[in-house]
Amino acid sequence: MDFLRKRLPAKVGRYLEGVEFPARKEELLGRLERNGVPGPVLGQLRKRLPEGEYRGPQDVLSALRRGR
Asked: What angle do CA 38, 40, 42 make, to 5 degrees?
């Protein structure tokens, strides 16, 4: 079961609250950590999100759906 695909979309609004887009991967991860994303989810995001710049929440979800 891919818990990122199942859990993140339901909570993406809360998790990404306060993120100023565009944002680079490390900026996103820092904000997600401050927003209380559970450790296992944050660890998977750290592994699976490609380096680069994200223009908005949909970019984050699209990168995860591509299975990178």
From this structure: 65
What residues are paired with 23 via a beta bridge?
A: 54
Domain count, the chain: 1
- How remote is the C-alpha of 34 from its chain's centroid? 13
Tokens of 23: 């944002």
Both tokens of residue 24?
Answer: 């680079």
Helix/strand/coil for 24 = strand
pTM of the model: 0.76
pLDDT in tens, the chain (68 residues): 355 556 566 676 778 888 899 999 999 999 999 988 889 888 988 998 999 999 998 898 888 777 64
Contact predicate 54/60, CB 8 Å? yes
User: Domain of 8?
Assistant: 3-65
